[in-house]
């Protein structure tokens, strides 16, 4: 896929957009399934165990 602008032509790379789209879809799926709270729970446990409370 190329874009013509005057005398120069630039080629648009599609792969980075596809990868970003995949990560956005995976992020939305993770938010919808409640993974955010699970990750935060694990982070709290790690932090508490590091300082010796948990």
Please explain how this structure is put together:
The chain has a two-stranded antiparallel ribbon. Strand 1 (2-5) and strand 2 form a beta hairpin. The radius of gyration is 21 Å and the shape is elongated. It is built from two helices and two strands, in the order E-E-H-H. 63% of the residues lie in helices and 15% in strands. The longest helix has 18 residues, at 15-32. The chain has one domain (2-50). The protein is α+β, with helices and mostly antiparallel strands and 54 residues long.
Give a short overview.
The chain is an alpha+beta fold and 54 residues long. The chain has one domain.
Average residue-wise pLDDT: 86
From the helix content, strand content and strand pairing, which structural class follows? alpha+beta
Strand content: 5-15%
Question: Radius of gyration in whole Å, from Cα?
Answer: 21 Å
Number of strands: 2
- General form: elongated
Number of domains: 1
Order of secondary-structure elements: EEHH
Strand order, main sheet: write it out. Answer: 1-2
Distance between the termini: 55 Å
- The percent of residues in helical segments reads 55-70%
Largest sheet: 2 strands, antiparallel
> Count of DSSP helices?
2
Low-confidence spans: none
